[in-house]
TrEMBL record:
Pyridoxal 5'-phosphate binds at residues 104-105, 132-135, 217, 220, 242, 273, 301. It comes from Natronosporangium hydrolyticum. This is Kynureninase. The modification N6-(pyridoxal phosphate)lysine is found at residue 243. The gene is kynU. Catalyzes the cleavage of L-kynurenine (L-Kyn) and L-3-hydroxykynurenine (L-3OHKyn) into anthranilic acid (AA) and 3-hydroxyanthranilic acid (3-OHAA), respectively. Pathway: Amino-acid degradation; L-kynurenine degradation; L-alanine and anthranilate from L-kynurenine: step 1/1; Cofactor biosynthesis; NAD(+) biosynthesis; quinolinate from L-kynurenine: step 2/3. SUPFAM superfamilies: PLP-dependent transferases. Residues 8-18 have a biased composition (Basic and acidic residues). Gene3D superfamilies: Aspartate Aminotransferase, domain 1 (3.90.1150.10), Type I PLP-dependent aspartate aminotransferase-like (Major domain) (3.40.640.10).
Length: 418
């Protein structure tokens, strides 16, 4: 590889992220003490601030017992409300449209209870053929729940022959042609496998014009690319907080429900005591009074110890801002893309920075074996999607140009692109 190491280090000096805010795992092998961690699209790294925040919540429990619901620095009853505004800012939503709760697939189910309402010939769900398996299973089971046949009802979008990604114009055209059979469009904003960023506003508009409901799975988009869910008119969305949001394994997810659906009493929802207006929650009334807010989709009282890490994470996003993060992300991932071109590694992700987020996917012979050697021999942590994809995601908060350089050199050493 021609690109000198010193050049990557100069770039890091000129364009640093916020690496000191994070714990970086040690390298398992290679020439450097820290891992070149490029798997933040799978599990983000822990902010250093998380530990103290988490312990403060445990200490409040020790000090206050049951009173902690009502008193202390962060009383538990309204605890989730602290997460609402920063989560709303992250995805471009109004606070009333947003709530942090549960995990991603659970939330997709709760949202489909409200927003997948098959009626007559309008009964199909559109997903990508490369949808994450959990999403495929979720939509198939929802279809069966309505007594329909998933083979007839779930339509999987595939790229044109010989192409690796979906084209917006093909999706829009399909919605024009067959839109009256589509009840729900449920796509990934950034595809977990190819790293393709879809044109969310165009597809949302086309889906809604066709009379369908449009929901987005933002697992790989939240904290990765700027989002304006309210302005784009998205019906609903859900995301997780353990990938680009760094809130820890299995962290709580977030949901968005557009303002036009809030307070609708014709929409079915599954309810529990957290669905009702908090002002009347402890009246223990037999009938709920749901607020005109995404909060109405909550069911149980939430896990407080899981919320601290989400709060810490969202504070970081507020401090740095998605616009600044996105611009460093475009530079950082662009640098890795140039290095991959230099070594001749076959990239599956779109070349256009506007059509991708941080992640680049590379086609290799044996992704499992290669990823293991990257980690153990070079200290480069990537993510294998067998049989033949390796995903590399420089995360603008903590990844470095030097990490990208190490990854490209290691791939070249292991014969990728040769
Ligand atoms: C990561 C991911 C999931 C994971 O679902 P959980 O319910 O959080 O376990 C689901 N869908 C997509 C698209 C993902 O990327």
């Amino acid at each position: 590889m021609d690109q000198p190491e010193s050049e990557s280090q100069q770039r890091d000096e000129a364009d640093p992220g916020h690496r000191p805010w994070f714990h970086i795992p040690p390298a398992e092998g290679g020439d450097y003490p820290e891992a070149a961690y490029l798997a933040g699209n799978s599990l983000g790294l822990p902010p250093r601030a998380t530990r103290a925040e988490l312990l403060a919540d445990v200490d409040a429990w020790a000090q206050l017992g049951v009173e902690g619901h009502l008193v202390g620095e962060r009383p538990w009853l309204p605890y989730h409300e602290q997460l609402t505004e920063p989560a709303a800012r992250l995805v471009g939503a109004l606070p009333a449209e947003t709530v942090v709760m549960n995990s991603l697939t659970v939330n997709l189910h709760l949202l489909m209870v409200s927003f997948y309402r098959p009626a007559g010939q309008r009964n199909r769900i559109l997903i990508e053929d490369t949808a994450f398996p959990s999403d495929s299973y979720a939509v198939r089971s929802q279809v069966r729940y309505h007594g329909l046949d998933p083979e007839q009802t779930v339509r999987r979008l595939t790229p044109r022959a010989g192409e690796a990604h979906l084209r917006t114009e093909d999706i829009v055209e399909l919605l024009r042609r067959e839109g009256e059979t589509v009840a729900l469009v449920l796509l990934g904003g950034v595809n977990y496998l190819t790293g393709e960023l879809l044109d969310l506003p165009a597809i949302t508009t086309a889906g809604r014009e066709a009379g369908a409901v449009v929901g987005w799975d933002l697992a790989h988009a939240a904290g990765n690319v700027p989002l304006r869910l309210h302005d784009w008119g998205v019906d609903f969305a859900a995301w997780c907080s353990y990938k680009y949001l760094n809130a820890g394994p299995g962290a709580l997810g977030g949901v968005f429900i557009h303002q036009r659906h809030l307070g609708r009493d014709d929409l079915p929802r599954f309810e529990g005591w957290w669905s009702t207006d908090p002002a009347t929650r402890f009246e223990m009334a037999p009938v709920s009074r749901p607020p005109a807010a995404a909060d109405a989709w909550q069911i149980s009282n939430p896990p407080i110890f899981a919320m601290g890490p989400v709060r810490t994470s969202l504070e970081i996003f507020d401090k740095v801002g998605m616009a600044a993060l996105r611009s460093r992300s475009i530079r950082l991932t662009g640098y890795l893309a140039d290095l991959l071109d230099e070594i001749g590694a076959p990239m599956v992700t779109p070349r256009d920075p506007q059509r991708r987020g941080a992640q680049l996917s590379v086609r290799v012979a044996d992704s499992g074996g290669l990823t293991k050697r990257l980690r153990t021999e070079h200290g480069v942590v990537a993510d294998a999607r067998p049989p033949d994809l390796v995903r590399l995601a420089p995360v603008p908060l903590y990844s470095t140009y030097h990490d990208c350089w190490r990854a490209a050199r290691a791939l070249a050493d292991l014969g990728v692109g040769a």
